[in-house]
């Protein structure tokens, strides 16, 4: 590459936020470094656009797609591009009215497409300004500033040097001074990070914008909004997509899908509304270990819960909350257990605590023993409440009266929240009177373990999954005792454990009996390390994704002549009619293979997001 090509390539990569760079003050030499996170986020383009379309409408999706295609853009350039598109559509519509012929105009990205005025998603610059304001308020768009292209390590290094020279010229002395230095560094780093939120702060300070947010904050937007109350944005500002906030919304969608698989659509819809309200002030999925020192507790106290009233205000009136709820008589429900408040997040619970209880009550049963026994005596005397057997089927008589089950909407919503809070995954926690929250750290840990178990079951079967769960419960277990505990034959256990060891799901440790390392006299302890297994699974997901992309590139090279033929303007859109059958069959097979490979990449990205980002 010659210098001109090199400079052009660096400029393009900087335009798409694919590079970090820093200039040495002494030598004025620029040092470049790849921005791997932004490069990987290109895979999630389709998911982000789908999420924007569902939450904010088609106009917002069109603007976000333009930003994705441009990497970053000045607001004035966006306004000019959309205004040109609108003018061309109006001119073409006028020409069509005059002569009645079809018309074609160029779109923003330069392609020749047939556009009608009714097909324009953004019909005016005022609407463009309003939609950008809504996306900025939702924290989905950031402002590009002078330090946006510096690596976090370079920023931390320069801030640490500046704070040390300003407050500790001779260096920090003592533990207290070191702690104060770290606090000052974290405060300075937070100020630098907040520079990208300057446009959002201006909108929050605007009175008319705050009024509009109050009027149009509930539910998914369908494009209806008041364009006149939005302030005109500074046309000199350069904006780009905030992927950190996009990941928060994608995490909400994944958790809603997780709840749908377990409880159904009605309960999952309530959970989605709760997550949307709870994560409005959350800027990223995982707090920064340096910048967010002490900030997590403040945010949790300020934004850490939602009430039933807030959820009801955001629920659609067309949603039937009675769906997904069972019919249980009031005297069969322990009100004390339902009203129990958990002020602290749940602690991880081992399987052995539930599995090895053969006599006596567990901790939860002992806690509610009085209430359950008193209600149980009444139900046992009533034969209508007891299950009636009819051959191999079990039928439960519905003795609950219609008046008793006619719950109002807040009570039905509370039933859904109680259902989520009592799950083994702890989707929701009842943290106070009429207050509900979500503990994302243990919840995502449970989701990661669920994904790992799914992979183990697909690769090693139910027996392999049972062996892994036994090892998680018992800890390290001798290979001689494992067949007895698992109720399996010794050759089957050895074969299955070797298979899972090669896959990275289980590990073995050799413990010698004495100082002489004799293999015949050593203990071999099998154990399961969840963290190591997740790291191995993440690495495998990376490699599989790369292989899928490489296979796709090979297929494109193999069908190069057919793909070049489809790029011709007289062939595009008319492939079946224009192309010969031999070439069209090759083109159809390529499209089918491409679709399958992209679908596999999307599934792998779902797994990577759960293991690494969420």
Automatic annotation (TrEMBL):
Similarity annotation: Belongs to the RNA polymerase beta chain family.
Protein name (record): DNA-directed RNA polymerase III subunit RPC3
UniProt domain RNA polymerase III Rpc82 C -terminal: residue ranges: 131-447
GO CC annotations, alphabetized: RNA polymerase III complex
Lineage: Eukaryota, Fungi, Dikarya, Ascomycota, Pezizomycotina
Molecular functions (GO terms): single-stranded DNA binding
InterPro entries attached to this UniProt entry: POLR3C_WHD (IPR055207), RNA_pol_III_Rpc82_C (IPR008806), RPC3 (IPR039748), WH-like_DNA-bd_sf (IPR036388)
GO biological process: DNA-templated transcription
Gene source species: Lasiosphaeria miniovina
Keywords: Coiled coil, DNA-directed RNA polymerase, Nucleus, Transcription
Domain DNA-directed RNA polymerase III subunit RPC3 winged-helix: 452-527
């Amino acid at each position: 590459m010659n210098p001109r090509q090199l400079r052009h390539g660096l400029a393009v990569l900087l335009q798409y936020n694919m590079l970090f760079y820093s200039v040495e003050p002494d030598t004025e030499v620029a040092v470049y470094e790849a921005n791997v996170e932004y490069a990987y986020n290109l895979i999630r383009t389709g998911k982000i656009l789908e999420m924007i379309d569902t939450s904010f409408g088609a106009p917002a999706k069109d603007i976000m797609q333009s930003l994705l295609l441009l990497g970053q853009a000045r607001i004035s350039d966006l306004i000019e591009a959309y205004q040109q598109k609108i003018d061309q559509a109006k001119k073409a519509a006028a020409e069509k009215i005059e002569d009645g012929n079809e018309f074609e105009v160029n779109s923003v990205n330069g392609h020749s497409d047939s556009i009608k005025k009714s097909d324009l998603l953004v019909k005016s610059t005022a609407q463009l300004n309003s939609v950008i304001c809504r996306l900025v308020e939702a924290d989905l768009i950031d402002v590009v500033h002078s330090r946006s292209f510096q690596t976090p390590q370079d920023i931390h290094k320069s801030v640490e040097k500046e704070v040390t020279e300003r407050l500790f010229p001779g260096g920090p002395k003592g533990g207290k001074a070191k702690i104060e230095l770290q606090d000052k560094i974290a405060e300075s780093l937070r100020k630098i990070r907040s520079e990208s939120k300057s446009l959002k702060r201006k909108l929050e300070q605007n009175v008319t914008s705050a009024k509009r947010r109050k009027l149009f904050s509930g539910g998914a937007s369908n494009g209806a909004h008041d364009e006149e109350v939005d302030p005109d944005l500074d046309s000199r500002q350069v904006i780009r997509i905030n992927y950190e906030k996009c990941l928060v919304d994608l995490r909400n969608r994944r958790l809603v899908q997780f709840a749908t698989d377990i409880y159904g659509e009605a309960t999952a819809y309530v959970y989605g509304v709760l997550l949307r309200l709870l994560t409005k002030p959350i800027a990223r999925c995982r707090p920064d270990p340096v910048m967010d020192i002490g900030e997590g507790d403040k945010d949790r106290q300020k934004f850490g819960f939602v009430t039933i009233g807030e959820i009801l205000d955001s629920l659609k009136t067309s949603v039937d909350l009675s769906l997904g709820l069972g019919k249980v008589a009031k005297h069969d429900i322990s009100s004390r257990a339902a009203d129990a408040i958990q002020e602290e997040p749940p602690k991880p619970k081992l399987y052995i605590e539930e599995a090895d209880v053969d006599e006596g009550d567990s901790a939860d049963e002992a806690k509610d023993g009085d209430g359950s026994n008193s209600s149980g005596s009444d139900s046992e005397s009533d034969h209508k409440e007891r299950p009636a057997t009819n051959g191999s089927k079990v039928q439960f008589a519905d003795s609950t009266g219609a008046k008793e089950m006619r719950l109002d909407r807040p009570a039905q919503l509370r039933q859904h929240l109680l259902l989520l809070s009592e799950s083994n995954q702890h989707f929701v926690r009842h943290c106070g009177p009429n207050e509900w929250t979500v503990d994302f750290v243990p919840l995502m840990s449970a989701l990661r373990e669920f994904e790992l178990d799914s992979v183990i079951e697909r690769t090693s079967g139910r027996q392999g999954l049972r062996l892994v769960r036994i090892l998680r419960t018992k800890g390290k277990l001798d290979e001689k005792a494992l067949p007895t505990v698992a109720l399996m034959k010794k050759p089957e256990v050895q074969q299955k454990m070797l298979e899972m060891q090669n896959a990275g799901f289980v590990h073995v440790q050799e413990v010698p009996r004495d100082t002489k390392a004799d293999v015949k006299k050593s203990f071999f302890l099998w154990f399961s390390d969840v963290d190591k297994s997740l790291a191995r699974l993440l690495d495998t997901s990376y490699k599989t994704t790369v292989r899928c992309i490489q296979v796709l590139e090979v297929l494109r090279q193999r069908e190069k002549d057919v793909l070049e033929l489809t790029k011709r303007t007289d062939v595009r859109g008319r492939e079946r009619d224009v192309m010969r059958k031999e070439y069209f069959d090759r083109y159809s097979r390529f499209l089918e293979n491409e679709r399958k490979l992209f679908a596999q990449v999307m599934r792998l990205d779902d797994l990577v997001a759960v293991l690494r980002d969420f």
